[in-house]
Amino acid sequence: MHCIYEENSVVTPPFPISLTNNTTAEIGKLTICRPLQQCGCLIVTAVVNWSATFTPPDGVSATVSTAGYADIVIELLFNNNVIYRVFQTALQKAIPLPPALFSSASTTCEIAPLLYSYQMPFCFNSCGYYDMIALHATAKLVAPVVSTGTAAASANIGAVTLIAEVVNMHRTKEDTADVIITE
């Protein structure tokens, strides 16, 4: 494959990006210019580091009857249209089988990889046409169920890498090898 065009984006601090329960946040974005007089396949790669933290009630050691969890949906958008989704869950760790004592916060770290290949021919014959690629994240937070007080759950986005490239998917004579069939 021959790369016609490549655009990279590493989302820079401030980190972490806090996610509010059931609210969508933009966590990365880049603009790509379609190559003139050339067609190719758009390949988008992203890596999203994220975490969920489960916090006990303030100043109280409580018994956990049900551990907490965080569901996250990471969406890849092309010109504001969702083209790919990844779903992940982070479970509360470091809690033995319920009932268990819950006296300090615990964090679970996860990595969400995305790889998407836009199969339609990606080309344009005039100057100045740009496309927008964005990453959005939505978290559903479920706090641990405790015997005393109210526990909390939170989610944060860490480092994000987003790469888009247009590659030539057509083989040329130089790209192919001679095949020898023997009996």
Tell me what the structure shows.
- By secondary structure, the chain is mainly β.
- The chain is built from no helices and twelve strands.
- The strands form three sheets. Strands 1, 2, 4, 9 and 12 form a five-stranded antiparallel β-sheet that branches. Strands 3-10-6-7 form a four-stranded antiparallel β-sheet, with no helix packed on it.
- The model has no long low-confidence stretch (mean pLDDT 81).
Tell me the span between the first and last alpha carbons: 32 Å
Share of residues in helices: under 10%
- Give the total of beta strands: 12
Structural class: mainly beta
Q: Spans with pLDDT under 50 lasting ≥5 residues?
A: none
Percent strand: over 45%
Helices, by number, come to: 0
Major beta sheet summary: 5 strands, antiparallel
Q: Could you state the order of secondary-structure elements as H and E? A: EEEEEEEEEEEE
Cα-atom radius of gyration: 23 Å
Short description:
Strands 1, 2, 4, 9 and 12 form a five-stranded antiparallel beta sheet that branches. This protein has 183 residues and is an all-beta fold.
Tag the structure with descriptive keywords.
four-stranded antiparallel β-sheet; about 180 residues; mainly beta
